[in-house]
Design brief:
The chain is an alpha/beta fold. The protein contains 16 helices and eleven strands. It has one domain: Thiolase/Chalcone synthase (Peroxisomal Thiolase, Chain A, domain 1, 3-Layer(aba) Sandwich), CATH 3.40.47.10.
Length: about 375
């Protein structure tokens, strides 16, 4: 997204349906339809006027199959970001914005739905994009195993202290405990349970890993000019960047950036195109599949570095309200729930509207960081309408 397009597209409505894993009351498509209708009701918008759809992460719900239930008049745009992980979540907003700015669509839904009774475990889709022969040959077949190796590199080679992951997880559960929609509502993190939780794959224990939930999320995007005439204040898309650096992909297993989350060139482009810097961001919604990858994402985006990460990533700095940089104000993938990360952009909108369960006073900008360590990654910045 270039400077000329900055802020021209806005999120006008949001919808989220979340259930316990395996507990969805309807098939996956039915949950998604309801989330889309919720987003339209939030905006005061007719669902039949939606003419574009974008998703990511191998979502199984073809837009053409959604048309009958929504009463869609004409489908003009449908696309999906490559990659099985959550790395493409922010890029989906870039595709939606491109469709609207170029006139190929007027109202685009960005969505993700996941019900294990229909799509199975999400890890199957993720690993299809992550695995290569030498990884499988070593017996690595799960996302946690792949990320654990990178985490261990970060801890050992860069001397990042393990304590920072505890601080991040603790902040997420603090926010989740205050969010009525969160799986962890009313339950702050038990530190002893965190430290002694069962191993998933070293160095990750149980609470270092994101939850999995059934559910669906949807966000309605229209031009900012049109959004100003709708029900809720527009939340403008200020910039999006996505991609991968040279040598990422399969060769990353031998790369000097192995411990990173893969965001460095993407983040650099995002700051350049928006004219913003890390110090200009008021809130962060961080896709944290695993605790160490959340830390790596903060480092890649320039909020801290390997040397000072322990000074920056402290519980008191990460919480709302009053922290230097509140992170995952809904509880994030750890504590709110995990529908392949679609809750994170929804929370970005809520916190900028002042609707978050953990409000951040006078928040004007929010960074959305997609899934870290994915083959391709993406980030976006949202902002309030300062007309």
């Amino acid at each position: 997204m270039n400077r000329a397009s900055q802020g021209k597209v806005s999120v006008a409505g949001i919808g989220l349906r979340q259930y316990k894993r395996g507990g969805a009351p309807l098939p996956e498509q039915g949950i998604l339809i309801r989330a889309i209708i919720d987003a339209c009701e939030d905006a005061g918008f007719n669902p039949a006027d939606i003419d574009g759809f974008v998703s990511y992460g191998d979502d199984k719900n073809e837009p053409v199959r959604l048309m009958p239930d929504l009463g869609t008049k004409e489908l003009r745009w449908n696309s999906q970001v490559w990659g099985g992980g959550g790395g493409g979540i922010a890029a989906a907003f870039g595709q939606a914005a491109a469709a609207i700015i170029s006139g190929q669509a007027n109202a685009v839904i960005v969505f993700r739905a996941l019900a294990q009774g229909n799509s199975g475990r999400m890890s199957a889709a993720v690993m299809r994009h992550h695995l290569n022969d030498h990884i499988v040959g070593a017996g690595l077949i799960a996302p946690a195993q792949i990320c654990a190796l990178r985490a261990q590199r970060m801890f050992e080679y860069y001397q990042v202290p393990h304590s920072v992951t505890e601080e991040l997880v603790k902040a997420s559960y603090y926010h989740g405990s205050k969010n009525p929609e969160a799986s962890s509502f009313g339950k702050e993190l038990d530190i002893e349970a965190y430290r002694t939780g069962r191993w998933v794959t070293e160095p990750f224990r149980l609470f270092d890993c994101s939850r999995e939930n059934d559910g669906a999320g949807a966000l309605l995007l229209v031009s900012t000019e049109r959004a100003r005439d709708l029900k809720k204040p527009p939340i403008r898309l200020l910039g999006v960047a996505n991609g991968a650096s040279q040598g990422w992909g399969d060769l990353i297993e031998n790369d000097t950036d192995y411990a990173s989350a893969g965001f460095k060139p993407v983040a650099d482009r995002l700051w350049e195109q928006t004219g913003l810097q890390p110090k200009d961001i008021d809130v962060v919604q961080l896709y944290e599949n695993f605790s160490a990858q959340g830390i790596a994402s903060l480092i890649d985006h320039g909020f801290c570095n390997y040397e000072n990460v322990a000074e920056f990533v402290k519980f008191e700095n990460l919480i709302a309200d009053g922290g230097k940089l509140p992170v995952n104000t809904s509880g994030g993938n750890f504590a709110q729930g995990f529908i392949h990360g679609v809750g994170t952009p929804i929370e970005a909108v809520r916190v900028l509207r002042g609707e978050s369960a953990n409000p951040v006073a006078n928040a004007k900008t929010c960074l959305l960081a997609g899934g870290p360590g994915a083959p391709t990654v993406s980030s976006a910045i949202f902002g309030v309408d300062d007309r």
